[in-house]
Structure formats: structure tokens, C-alpha cells
Task: inverse folding
């Protein structure tokens, strides 16, 4: 049974943001959040998919954990397809909340995700006709692929990154099998989708190798991927940026030059061309940063922001350039403007909030008050997984 009450653990009800607000902000200025309250979509009894989408967009992971638990308990035990999808949402919420041990314990109770109980062939053909997750595909495993990825990544959160890499390799093998099946059946769209997923998994492996500080393995893996995907502009740019991170500017420049040539010879849609050209500009800007050419980098980041005002990476790096160029009075209002213009994205970016707090400290006068004001604004949109240490209070 996938809907037994004994499968669940109780999560903490405290909110670190609320706790910090109570300690730092006067009562009449606080914006206290109640993540146990019903969402707007729940109050009007919207379809389950809409409620889950609202909770995800708002980063309301505590509320999602509550909602999915209630939905799982209310779902009939024979509705396996609905239940396993609800379990994915529940486990995702726990991971986002940093409840890794709890997520692992609840995941273990689902059993073997590749077992017969999770295969369409184990049930009558019309068994899932009324499920909102029903599709024409009625063979193979019904477990969302995202749950397998979450299961793999959970191991790294628990401290076993090598196990995560092993599981991701296993998923890559499965993706290649699905690619081959689509290719044989003439499903070019499906084949491309699985290729894209495979590429994303490869990049995850690469990032975990970097996280392990195994730079030798990371660069070797990156070069192998570059050979496998000779026209993947995103991948090659990522490899160049990895070299920047390692301080190998010569190789980084070589890779970025090959990316430039790739874009020039790549015949794509106008939208893709704009994206690729922005990526070239970002590559040029990041290279300038590592060379200490702050004004050159600043100009390039400004070029990116003229096309993508909400690009957080460009904004954060631009603020760093302005700091080192002695233009602190430009950096602060720029970040403040972005945070107010895009409160649900820029205003809840932990790296941007941390940089903003750092700039306030460098300004020295009234830094604590400015950080407290920022905290009030951020609390209006930030999800309940926000790392409050970013305020540096």
C-alpha cells in the first residue's frame, strides 16, 4: 500500500525566516508567513495539477508536503499511477526543505521503483483511464523519470556523492536505450527528447565531479562529452567555464574560440541565435573577469542585461566588477532595482541577497538597517527553504 499513514514522518512547522523576523524586525513591520494556511487554488478547490503548480512556483514546500500527504491518504490504494506521482511531489518538497533523512526514509518505503508493481503491464489496460496522469503509453515503468533523478541526487545530500554519480550513470544507460527504441520506431521527437535528457544527466555528473574537487576527472569527462556532442554549444561553453574555474585560461580561450566558430556555422532559429550570442558575450565577460579586466567585463555584462534584464548571473557578476572597479555607488542601486523589479526571482536569489548584504556592509553606514529592510522585502516572496544566513545578520 502506498497510502498507509505509517509511511509518513512529521516535518518541523517552524519557518527560519519568520524566526529571524521576530528577532530582528519590530512587530508592526513584520511580514509573517503561514505556510500551513490553504493556498488560493486550494480555497477555490482547483484541480490538483493547478494546486501543485501554484505551490511549486511559490516555493511553498512545507505546504506542498502537507497537501501531498493529505492527497495520498485520500487516494484509493489501487490508483498506483496517481499515488506514485503524488509521492514524487511529496519527496521533492522534503528535499527542498532539507529534510534529507526523512525523504530517504519515506522513499525506501516505496520499494523497488523498477519492480513489477510499478509497471503498466501488471494492470488491466483500462486501470488508469481516469487518472489525470494517464497517457497513451501503457507499457514499461510508470514511475516519473524525475523521481529516479531525485532518488539519485538525494544520495549526495546524504553525503554519498559517488553513489549519486553511479545512479546517474545508470539513468544515462536507460536514456540511451529509450533513444534507440525511438530511433528504430521512427520517433524523431522522442529520440531528441531522450538525447536532451541524457545531456542534462551528463552535465549533472560533471558538476558533481567538480563538487568533489576531482578536477582531473571533471576535465577528462568534459572533454569526452565535447567529443560526443561536437555541436552542443551549451556543453562546450560549460567546459570553457570549467577551465576558467580551474585557472586554465589558455584552454578556456581555446574552447570559447571554438564555441564562437560553432555559433557562426550553426543555422538555427532567430531566437536560438540570440540565445547563443548572449552566451558568447557571457563567455567573453567571464574570461575578462578572470583576467582582472573589470571594465571590459562590466561592458559585456551590461550587454547581456540589455537583452536579458532578469539574468541573475550577469547581474551578480556585474556587481562584482563594479566593486573591484571602485564603483560601489553604482553596484548597490543596480541590485536594489533588480530585486524590486523581479521580486519572485531576483528578490529571492540567495547569491544576489548575499552580495547585496556584503555591499551594504562595505558601505558601512546604516548597514544593519538596510539589511533588515531587505529582509522584510525578501520575506514577501521567498519560499520557506530560503537560507536566512544570506542576510548576514
Result:
Amino acid at each position: 500500500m502506498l497510502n498507509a499513514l505509517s509511511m509518513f514522518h512529521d516535518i518541523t512547522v517552524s519557518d527560519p525566516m519568520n524566526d529571524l523576523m521576530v528577532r530582528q524586525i519590530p512587530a508592526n513591520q513584520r511580514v509573517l508567513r503561514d505556510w500551513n494556511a490553504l493556498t488560493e487554488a486550494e480555497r477555490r478547490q482547483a484541480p490538483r495539477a493547478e494546486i501543485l503548480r501554484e505551490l511549486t512556483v511559490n516555493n511553498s514546500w512545507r505546504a506542498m508536503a502537507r497537501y501531498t500527504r493529505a492527497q495520498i491518504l485520500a487516494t484509493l490504494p489501487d490508483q498506483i499511477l496517481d499515488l506514485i506521482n503524488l509521492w514524487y511531489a511529496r519527496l521533492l518538497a522534503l528535499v527542498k526543505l532539507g529534510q534529507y533523512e526523512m525523504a530517504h526514509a519515506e522513499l525506501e518505503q516505496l520499494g523497488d521503483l523498477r519492480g513489477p508493481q510499478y509497471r503498466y503491464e501488471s494492470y488491466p489496460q483500462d486501470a488508469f483511464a481516469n487518472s489525470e496522469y494517464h497517457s497513451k503509453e501503457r507499457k514499461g515503468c510508470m514511475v516519473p523519470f524525475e523521481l529516479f533523478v531525485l532518488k539519485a541526487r538525494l544520495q549526495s545530500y546524504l553525503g554519498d556523492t559517488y553513489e549519486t554519480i553511479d545512479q546517474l550513470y545508470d539513468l544515462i544507460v536507460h536514456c540511451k536505450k529509450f533513444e534507440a527504441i525511438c530511433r528504430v520506431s521512427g520517433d524523431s521527437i522522442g529520440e531528441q527528447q531522450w538525447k536532451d535528457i541524457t545531456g542534462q544527466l551528463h552535465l549533472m555528473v560533471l558538476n558533481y565531479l567538480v563538487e568533489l574537487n576531482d578536477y582531473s576527472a571533471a576535465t577528462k569527462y568534459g572533454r569526452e562529452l565535447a567529443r560526443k556532442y561536437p555541436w552542443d554549444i551549451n556543453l562546450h561553453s560549460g567546459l570553457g567555464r570549467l577551465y576558467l574555474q580551474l585557472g586554465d585560461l589558455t584552454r578556456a580561450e581555446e574552447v570559447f574560440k571554438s564555441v564562437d566558430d560553432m555559433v557562426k556555422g550553426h543555422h538555427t532559429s532567430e531566437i536560438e541565435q540570440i540565445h547563443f550570442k548572449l552566451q558568447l558575450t557571457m563567455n567573453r565577460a567571464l574570461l575578462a573577469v578572470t583576467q582582472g579586466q573589470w571594465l571590459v567585463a562590466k561592458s559585456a555584462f551590461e550587454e547581456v542585461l540589455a537583452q536579458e534584464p532578469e539574468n541573475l548571473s550577469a547581474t551578480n557578476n556585474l556587481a562584482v566588477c563594479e566593486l573591484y572597479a571602485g564603483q560601489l555607488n553604482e553596484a548597490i542601486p543596480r541590485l536594489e532595482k533588480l530585486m524590486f523589479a523581479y521580486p519572485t526571482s531576483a528578490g529571492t536569489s540567495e547569491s544576489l541577497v548575499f552580495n547585496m548584504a556584503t555591499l551594504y556592509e562595505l558601505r558601512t553606514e546604516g548597514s544593519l538597517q538596510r539589511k533588515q529592510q531587505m529582509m522584510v522585502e525578501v520575506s514577501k516572496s521567498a519560499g520557506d527553504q530560503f537560507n536566512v544566513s544570506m542576510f548576514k545578520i
